[in-house]
Inverse folding.
């Protein structure tokens, strides 16, 4: 898939301009049908590396590849006309240095039509972010809990409590100073998220942070109740679709076993019968 024009009406610059304005709405997205459902409601959709856990059954995001991200982003792109598409750079695709990051970010954008990429890390990634931005690639930052560093962080713990608050604040400042157009704050105390939001010049996008952030993002399968292996504290379930799906599948199985499905209205008559369809 080679893309020569933006697939959405909203740009990274539009998101950047929302600082301090109307809250930015975002959800993760991995498929064309879901993209079509959320396009009109979201300002940007994130093709998150969370797809590794949500769709592929991986224990973490660390096993996600460039090929997986590109395949899903291409699918999402087919369902968008309004929302900006931001694509996560997977683990190992940018940490080696700015040149590696540029090559992989450029590939993602060229092959998917993404309007921006997202990468994890604050101060340590500032040079790479600046390198990408200087070469025309819009970058969204991600600080606080960074799932690709889960082994180094010792698990999916809240980040920025007590004396670590200044570390997370410094990371957010570094991302903003490097030229990122927005920064995700994941699993940080609400008071710290509010402070970062007040002190950095780019929109903050909260996930397990604060209602005071400039916007919010959730994993769509979490908020719809489709992924129910576990539920983080910061997730609000707006539906319980997994339970509905289980019930529907059970009804289908029962009808098949009882030969109640397919019924007369679901099968086709012989072509020789009058009015057959």
């Amino acid at each position: 898939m080679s893309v020569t024009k933006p697939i959405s009406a909203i740009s990274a610059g539009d998101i950047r301009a929302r600082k301090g304005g109307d809250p930015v709405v975002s959800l993760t997205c991995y498929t064309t049908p879901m993209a079509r459902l959320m396009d009109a409601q979201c300002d940007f959709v994130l093709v998150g590396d969370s797809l590794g856990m949500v769709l592929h059954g991986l224990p973490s995001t660390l096993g996600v590849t460039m090929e997986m991200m590109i395949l899903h982003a291409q699918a999402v792109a087919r369902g968008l006309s309004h929302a900006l598409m931001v694509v996560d750079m997977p683990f190992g695709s940018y940490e080696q240095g700015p040149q590696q990051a540029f090559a992989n970010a450029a590939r993602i954008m060229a092959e998917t039509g993404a309007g921006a990429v997202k990468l994890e890390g604050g101060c340590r990634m500032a040079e790479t972010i600046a390198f990408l931005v200087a070469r025309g690639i819009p970058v969204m930052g991600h600080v606080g809990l960074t799932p690709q560093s889960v082994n180094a962080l010792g698990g999916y713990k809240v980040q920025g409590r007590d004396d670590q608050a200044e570390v997370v604040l410094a990371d957010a400042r570094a991302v903003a100073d490097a030229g990122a157009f927005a920064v995700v704050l994941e699993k940080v105390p609400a008071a710290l998220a509010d402070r970062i939001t007040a002190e950095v010049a780019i929109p903050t996008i909260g996930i397990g942070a604060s209602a005071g952030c400039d916007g919010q993002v959730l994993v769509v399968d979490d908020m719809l109740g489709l992924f129910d292996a576990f539920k983080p504290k910061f997730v609000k379930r707006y539906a319980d679709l997994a339970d509905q799906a289980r019930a529907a599948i059970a009804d289908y199985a029962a009808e098949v076993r009882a030969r109640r499905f397919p019924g007369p209205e679901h099968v086709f008559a012989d072509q020789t019968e009058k009015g057959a369809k």
In short: The radius of gyration is 21 Å. The CA atoms of residues 54 and 254 lie 28 Å apart.
